[in-house]
Design brief:
- A 3-stranded antiparallel beta sheet has the order 1-3-2.
- The protein has 8 helices and 3 strands; from the N terminus they run αααβααβααβα.
- It is mainly alpha-helical.
- Helices cover 63% and strands 5% of the residues.
Length: 267
Amino acid sequence: ERDAAAAQAAEEVERQTEEAAARAAQEAQAKAEAAAQAKEDAERAAQQAREAAETQAALEAARAVEEAKKSAAIEVRRGAAAEARAWPRGEKGVSLALDRLASSTAGDAEAEATAVGSLALVLGGLVAHPDEEKRRTVRFANPMFNRDIGRWPGGVEVLYAAGFRLLHRPPFQPAAKPSAQASGAQASDAHGKDPCGAWEDPLTAVDGLEAVAVLSEPDPFKDLDAWTQWFETVKTCAGAVQARADSLCKGPLKPPVEDAPGWAKPR
């Protein structure tokens, strides 16, 4: 009996020892798994931190690039505006501009005639209707203007010689469709639908502005002498351009206003 009891006690000790060893193994495994999970979590957190840092760096780099583009666009705009202001005014400036236009269109007599003829129509319309404000703004983004005049060095300089200033403003935005009661004149207002579509200035995508040439009219009621001088300058420039257009066309070029290029018609 004593031997049986001793054997039973030994078996119990052995069972408890095995259970303790099993528990220890389980605890060790759990600790190892927890350590592995913690390592994985730490690696994931580190990766996320790296990605966030890279994303932030990329965003900051992109912002820096955009700012650099905007600064460059501003400098280009300022340079163009300065050149426009510096261009000689009056008949002398027209002559220099027309000579530059002739040089830039060398070999393409039709292009020169089209450009000079279109300019003659614009300035002639101003002389005939100096009080119509819509005639005193020319959008460089208009594709027909760019085709006829804007693409040729010397073309826009004719406008500068006549007193136009180079400005930059938010791009043209078509207005809402006019009501059925609106007249034809209202429907074709300067802020209405542009029938010529849009030619995209590459700088517009950078700074959100477009180039326009604007001729400011002095108030004749406040300063008649200034207005008279302004009108005589426009008239003289128009005459010089008309004379060049006549020589290119081998005869007088005086079509009705209705035949003016689309971008030159009042809206």
